[in-house]
Hints:
- The chain is an alpha+beta fold.
- Helix content is about 35%, strand content about 10%.
- The chain has four helices and three strands.
- It starts with 5 loop residues before the first helix and ends with a helix.
- The relative contact order is 0.23.
Amino acid sequence: MYRVSPLTYLVAGITATGLHGRAIVCSDAELSIFNPPTGLTCGAYLEQFVTAAGGQLYNPTATSNCEYCQLSNADQYLAASNICKQPPQGSPLPILPLLELPWLMKQ
Length: 107
């Protein structure tokens, strides 16, 4: 029901524009920590998984306590809330998510 409000699209557009492409750094509480099979490094064990699923492996050369973060940029986080830089096909307000506000883009 929240999609009925035009304010939703304004906030989504500003959020998507401001956070697009920003790197994410997971806190210790957000990391998945586990041990790879004996004889493998974290990088060797998770290489195919990280390539397919995305995310970040913080210690690829370690042989224990692999630290994996499921997100690598803010776009992945926003996609879970259906907020993206490009509007979905058939969006009722297609121009709003594409707002490029110069004051917001300054870093």
